[in-house]
Amino acid sequence: MPGKPAPSDKPDPVEAPSAAEGGEAPPAAPPENNPEGSAPAAECDAAAAAADVPAADAESAQVEEPPEAPAPPSPAVPTSAPLEVCVEDVNDSSLTIKWKTPNTIGESGLDGYTVEYCKDGTTDWVVANQELTLANCYCIKDLTAGDMLLVRVVAVNAGGRSEPGTLAQAVPVRDVVARPKIKVPRNLRNRFVKQVGEQINLVIPFLGKPKPAVSWLKDGQPLSPKRVNIRNTDKDSILFIRGSQREDSGVYEMTVKVDSFEDKAAITLQIVELPGPPASVKLVDCWGFNAALEWTPPKDNGNAEITGYIVQKADRKTGDWFTVLEHYHRLSATVSDLIMGNSYSFRVFSVNKVGVSELSAITKDVATIQKTGTYSHFVPEGILFFHVVKGLYSYCIDIFTGIVYKPPEYPEHDFSEAPKFTTPLNDRAATVGYTTKLLCSVRGCPKPKIEWLKNKMVIGDDPKFRQISNQGICSLEIRKPCSFDGGVYTCRAKNEQGEATVSCKLEVKQVILAEADKEKGK
Question: What percent of the chain has pLDDT over 70?
C-alpha cells in the first residue's frame, strides 16, 4: 500500500483568481532555499519591478553612504593676562588706570575688559565697570579720599576670564600736588667722561611734592655702598665717588617716585685712562730708503676709543728717537727718507682721548739701508769722513768702506710770474670832506712796482694822496676829497715779466643841508 505523504512545512498552494475574474495578482512568494527553478522566477520579478520604476528612481534607490559627522569645535580658551597695569592719574575722588593688550588673544577674540578694585587688606573685589570696556584705560570714580586701593584688570572672551593683571602696590586716593620730574643737567645728557682717579660729584635736581622717594641702580643692579655714596635732599640727589676706577663705568639709573607716579633718568659714566701699547709691531719689508711696518691694536684701549698712533725711528748708531708719523690712524705705515748705510729700529705708541701710552711696541728686527746709487772710485782706508754741501749737490764719503755716493740732480724751479690782480678795485662813492680809501691786491715774481693813476695821469707824490703797498695789498688813501677828486682811478703793477692794471670809478658827493639846518648854522 502506498504510504501517506510526509507532512510538509510549505503552505498549501492557493489558487489565485484569474485576471479575467477581476482579481488582483497575489504577491510573489519568497523563494525557498536553493529550490529548483527559483532563479528564473526571481529574475522575472526583478525585471517586472524594474519596468514599473523610472530610471531616476532606480538610481536613487541605490544605497548611499551616510555623511561623516562634523568634528566637534575646539573649546574656547581665555586670553593671557593684561600687561603693565599702572596708574595714569589720581585725585581725591577718582583713579585712572591704564594697561596694555594681552600677548595671547586666541581664536575667539577679545570681548573686553573688567576693572575691579578693593581696599588694601581685604579681599572684597568690586567691579568698577558694569559693562565690558574695549579701551585700555578706565577711570574709577566716586572713591573715598584716603583709601588705599588695589586694582586689577581681567580680559574676557568666549573662553571666560583671563588671569588678572594687578597693580604692583596699593594706591592712595588723594591729590598729588606735583608729579615727580627729574631735571638732568645738560652736561650729563650725553656720556660723562672722567679719568681714573678723578673725583665724581654729580648733582641731579628733581621736582615733586610731597617729597619723592629716590632710588639708584647701576646697570640694573643696586649700587655698592663701598664705591658710591648717595645723598638725597628735597630738591636734588648727589652721586659721589671719591676716586673713580674703570669698574665704576656704566649706566646709572635714577628713579624718583611719589605714590604711584615716578620718573626715571639714565646717566652714562665712562672712566678712562691711558691706553696700553700696540700688541705687536713688526718690520715687514725694507727696500731702497724705505721700511714697511705693521702693528696690531692694543689689548687695553684705556676704556676709550683709540684715536691714532705715533711712529718713531732710531738710528742704531746714536740711539736717539725721532717722530716720523703723528696722528696716524692705520695699522701699517711706510717710513721713507732713511739714510743709506744706517740701521734703524722702530717703535709705535697708542693714543686715545686721555693721551699717549706710557709704553711702546718696538720692532725686533733692524732695518738696514743698503748702499746703492751711483758710485765712483774707491778711497784708501783711513781717510776721514767729511760732508760737503754746495747747491743741490752733496757728496758723502764713508770712512769705513771708502765709497762715494752722488745723489741725483734736480733742476731749479722758476718762480717768475707776471703781475696779476687777485682782488680788483670796486666803484665807490665818497662824501666831500671825509677821507676814503681804495683797496686791491696783486701778486707776481719778482715783486712788481705799483703806480696809481687818476684819469690816466700818474698821481706821483701828490700830498693829497697816500700810497701804500705791503705784502701784495695795495691801497690809495684820498684825504678829505672835494668834488674835483672824483674820476677813474687805476692801479698799475709792473715787473720784468709783464704788466697788469685794474680800475674803478670814484664819485664824490656834496652834502645838502635842509633849510632848518641852514638857519641853525646862521
Answer: 77
Instruction: Please give, one letter per residue, the 3-state secondary structure of 333-396.
Output: EEECCCCCCCEEEEEEEEEECCCECCCCEECCCCEECCCCCEECCCCCCCCCCCEEEECCEEEE
Secondary structure (3-state) at 225:
coil
Separation of alpha carbons 254 and 267, rounded Å = 8
Beta pairing class for 192-195 and 261-272: parallel
Single out the residue of 360, 363, 323, 324 nearest to residue 343, CA to CA.
363
pLDDT over 70 at 44, yes or no: no
Q: Would you state the cell numbers that stand for residue 285, as one nine-digit string? A: 719689508
- Rounded alpha-carbon distances, angstroms, from residue 52 to 18, 19, 58: 21, 19, 10
pLDDT in tens, 383-422: 333 333 333 334 444 444 445 667 778 788 888 899 999 9
Distance between CA 49 and CA 62 in Å, rounded? 14
Would you say 192 and 203 are in contact if contact means Cβ atoms under 8 Å apart?
Answer: no
Model confidence pLDDT, tens digit, residues 204-256: 999 988 888 999 999 999 998 889 999 999 899 999 999 999 999 999 999 99
Q: Quick count: other Cβ atoms within 10 Å of Cβ 206?
A: 21
**Edge-to-edge strand list for the sheet holding 278-287:** 278-287, 290-298, 332-335
- Segment (H or E) for 49: helix 38-52
CA distances to 89, 145, 146, 331 from 173, in Å: 10, 5, 5, 66
Q: Specify the pLDDT at position 63.
A: 56
Give me 330's grid cell: 692705520
Q: What 3-state DSSP class applies to 135? A: coil
Question: Domains in the chain and their CATH numbers?
Answer: 83-172 (2.60.40.10), 178-272 (2.60.40.10), 278-364 (2.60.40.10), 374-406 (no CATH), 417-509 (2.60.40.10)
| pLDDT for residue 12 | 47
d(CA 212, CA 161): 37
User: DSSP class of residue 227?
Assistant: T
pLDDT category, 376, cuts 50, 70, 90?
very low
- Nearest one of 276, 405, 389, 289 to 338, comparing CA atoms: 289
Cα 420 to its chain centre, rounded Å, is 50
| Residues forming beta bridges with residue 266, ordered by sequence position | 253
Least confident of 3-12, 231-240, 355-364: 3-12
Give the residue among 193, 359, 191 at the shortest CA–CA distance from 275.
359
Of residues 107 and 465, more confidence is placed in 465
The reported pTM is 0.44
- Fill in the amino acid letter for 173: V
Q: Which residues of 60-95 are buried (b: 16+ CB within 10 A; e: fewer)?
A: eeeeeeeeeeeeeeeeebbbbbbeebbbeebeeeeb
